[in-house]
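Dear support,

Our group has been running a series of protein-ligand predictions, and this particular one with zinc ion is the one our PI (initials K.S.) wants archived with full inputs and outputs. We had some confusion internally about which version of the output was final, so please treat the block below as the authoritative record. The input we submitted was:
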Amino acid sequence: MEMLNEINNIGIAKHFRLSEFACPCCKQVMLHPKLLVKLIELRKILERPVYINSGYRCPKYNQKVGGVVNSYHRIGLAADIKVKDISLINLLEVCENIGFGGIGFYEKKNFLHLDVRPTKRARWRK
Ligand SMILES: [Zn+2]
Ligand SMILES: [Zn+2]
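Confirmed final output from the archive:
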């Protein structure tokens, strides 16, 4: 059905659309406002596009990409992001200042995992 191409095609902030956070396999989506607010702040500081590599993941898709079972992507608290023309280490520094609860530094694949977990902060590197 052609109409489904438009599913979640809703502007939720000046530079973000709900569809960017949806699961690629089923288009289901969960997104916590705290995560969105921090990503908006990041976009504002950087003054350039923040690409969402992965937002919400349904159980099937999470398993497919090898995510941990209790991943924060499963409940709309996490996003993996990529930004052009800034080193990953500089991007990390900006994200530290914004204060994400969880930050994963994926050097080889050149992206950051960011989340707004309610528990104590976590940092890791892969
Ligand atoms: Zn899915
Ligand atoms: Zn992630």
